[in-house]
Amino acid sequence: MSQPSHYAAASVDLRRALAKAVPQDALRELHRPSPAIHMAVFAWQILLIAIGVTGAVVFDAWWQWLPFSILLGFTAFNFTVMLHEVVHDAVFVKKQTRANALLGLVYAFPSGISRTQFTRWHLDHHSQLGDGEADPKRHHLSPKRNARWYKLLYVTPALFFIYFRAAARETATYPPELQGTIRIERTVTILGQLAILFAIGTFAGWWIAFKVYMVPYFLVFPVAFTLNRLGQHYNIDPADPAKWSTLMKPSRFWDVAYLWSAYHLEHHYFPRVPFYRLRRLHMMLRPFYREIGLQPVTYRTLVWNWFVLNRPPHTNWAVPDLDEPGVAPQSAH
């Protein structure tokens, strides 16, 4: 890392508090990777792809095939979550450099990104969390215009232009050798995806390609990406490092739909805890959350505040959760 970690310097007191909040024995157990569980999750994603493709191919009525296309879009996004596990070395008990590299390439392919770029980008994000300039995700990817029309671009195919432009700007600051590796990986994944699309269209027909590939990637993937990102760092307290990520309310549905990646605050507290143990970590941290006055929210609340009330990113929205009984939506001013 070429520059000091902003988050490490700002979170000294937080890390002391977390050390008291979670017993060391329990923390060691939470950090223990299980390759078998990880590979079972990988197999589950492959099965979902098979189910999604089958359903999208078999059915022609939109209300029948669309759920399968949605399934395919969310599954494609979740391969970035699988890649995220590789980045944090949370797959194998012992360090497996070659296996990690192979898995990283496999997981990066479905979204057409570079494994190397994602790794550098994401680790810099962790290191520089809280710094609006040094954190690459915040600096390059967060909307600079707090306008509803601009935010809505993120749930359209325009997301791909926005993301790859952001990645390119950050990549331009990397050493030339690293830039070369990223360029090769990105070219291979993009050409590979285009080859798949044209192969499906040529041999199975473009109607099948529309249902199996175009809708999942160009219409569903941006929605899955943006909704997941809403639960990361948009609703925060900039004055408190303990609250620099959003605390999400546990949900079995989102645990499955997003492979536990909604527990983003817990992940930033303990980055190497495997994703399938984050729900348990959340439960252990609940007394700590109550102590610091941090209330969990739902995606419904975040969507309402982001799009309807037009809250700016990386600020303290300080709003009650809409899914709590008796809470009514607020009017935008």
Could you characterize the architecture of this molecule?
The protein has about 325 residues and is mainly alpha-helical. It has one domain. About 65% of the residues lie in helices and about 0% in strands. It contains 16 helices and no strands. Helix 4 packs antiparallel against helix 5. The radius of gyration is 20 Å and the shape is globular. It starts with 5 loop residues before the first helix and ends in a 25-residue tail after the last helix. The model has no long low-confidence stretch (mean pLDDT about 95).
Give a count of the beta strands, DSSP E runs of length 2 or more: 0
Task: Decide which structural class fits the backbone.
Answer: mainly alpha
Q: How much of the residues is beta strand, in percent? A: under 5%
- Ranges where pLDDT stays below 50 over 5 or more residues in a row are none
- The helicity comes to 55-70%
From the alpha-carbon coordinates, what is the Rg to the nearest angstrom?
20 Å
Number of H/I helices: 16
Please provide a brief summary of the model.
This protein is an all-alpha fold. The protein has 16 helices and no strands. The chain has one domain.
